What does this fold into?
Amino acid sequence: MGDVLALPGGDDPAEVTSVVVENDDFGVPALVRASVAGGRSISIATGSMVYVEPADAEIGASAVAADHGSPEALVAQIAQAHADSAPIQEMAGRLARGINLKAGSNLQDLHQLALALFIDQGDTAAALTVADLLAELPFDGNFGRWKWIEGGLAIAAYLTRHDEDRSARYSAAIRAADDAETDPLRAKTAAMYRQRQLNEPNVYDPEILRASSAGKIDVERDWRVLRIGVLLYLRAHGGSETLGREVLERRIAAELAAVGALNAQLATR
It folds into this structure.
């Protein structure tokens, strides 16, 4: 494969010859087994940080220059694994120049990258790894940046739904902004407004219907991806008075299937 992996125990790095991903009993990627030169097999838990230097590839070259284990190196490794995806290459190319976790544009790219890996590529392990870059950031009062962090937390909460404790931690973090207002009257008003948004979310029904009626597959797909983002947020937040978690999970599954079908149609054009 050409990649060089830093081995545990301080041993010299070795070239990776093959990689196999093993799922748990729920079908979620749980373990990566990498074979390296010399016949040694290395087991890596999904989501773990390992040091890999890509041997070539345009995106991979930036990883060699980046600090080991840096967000830039991580994104470069993921991009190399999805070299045939133009959207992922485009986002990774922007991020490879340097990731500033206080820059809204970088946070947006990370959020969009996690979504693309999850929805379009079905690479849940990589999607969770990218989402975790966002999930580690605290709420600092800037709602412009927070919406992308919030999106990362929502993705992470869904992808770890079979690990109740871990998923609950993401869900708790996503509610950090709910208690940001310290003035009692403003806090009460904000809570009422938030509950109304949760009960009557904008899931882009008119936009999706118009695009579908007009046969605009790419436009319908984009609106449905936005809808998935809303549903993921609602689920992570704990649902609402009108939409319970089980209903939300069914709707998310249905939307993922719908986007998959639209992607298949677009691929044949």
